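User: Hey, quick favor. My workstation is busy. Could you predict this chain's structure for me?
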Amino acid sequence: MPKTVRKRLIENYLFAEAGRAWLAVTAVLLAIMLSTRFARFLGEAARGHIPQDLLLKVVLLSSLQYLTILIPVSLMLGAMLALGRMYRDSEITAMHACGVGLTRLYGPFLRLSLWLAVLTGLLSFYLSPLAGRTVDFLTKRAAQELKFSSFEPGVFRNLPGDAGVLYVAEVRDNGRELRDVFIRLAGRDTAPPSVITARRGVQRVDPDSGERSVVLLDGHRVDGVPGLADYRLVQFGQHGVTLQAPAFVHRIGKQALKPTAALWGSPDPRDIAELQWRWSSPISVVLLVLLAVPLARTDARAGRFNQIGLGILIYIVYFNLLGVAQAWLESGALPPWIGLWWVHLIMALFALRLYAVRGGYLRRILHRLA
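Assistant: No problem, here it is.
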């Protein structure tokens, strides 16, 4: 077999091993993170803060946000696991015998990291902020709709626009039928305050406007200012009360949810910090792979997980430094031209030194200098 063909087969084999390991690690980490996220939203739905039919959509959108964080570390761990197995099975030793050195080992992993850096950039700059805004919009709108449209038995609920207070002792037929209703209207303009009680009520929804109303049956209404003798007492068989929720206005308060186009050219240090943080995701994909290849080198008799702990520690230090640099940039302690870039520079120099040490290049340079 020609030497070039043999090396091409080795590179394709390394690429496939790294890809499979990355997919496995990503799937495990994503499942763990989504399970915690799902548990949180399940608790919100159980408390009546968001409807249950939104749970799956919110969790799926959250996965896009998590992938931006997971891809760098999952690729690093996947590369180290794949290479660790090969070192343990002496496959790397056989590759070295075929003329595949440390430099050539970088090729397949670097090629995979560049493809994933493009994917991470797409997620970081566009899909993740869009998913975050969508989740924020859906949850806030659902919370408002539930606040003004549902009735919880035994709980005093404020009416839309501070118009008054409503109390329902019992709710039947999925919220459509109410029992023992008490309403206190605050009174507006020339209308005096009112107290309404009814033995039964029915909730209705206008299919066109979405406006909700409660039709009270068999009750009494008292109009008048408390403490004054000027009041009116009315007994009714049917009486309607409109419950119109205020218009929903979605405001984006977090920099992480802003579109990338809104961050470009902004003088706000928080926007600059967020933009540089989005750049950090694809950059970290490449840098962590450059670290993973020399870090994974181990003795054939050693365990394949020996270096994983060191890799995780480096990742934690790296991203904590990025978080500190982002906080400093937001506060104005760092100028934008330094920003988060110094952290990437430190990691790049560390990867270069590790490559020189593990490949024996540093020893050769020092020997020549001596």
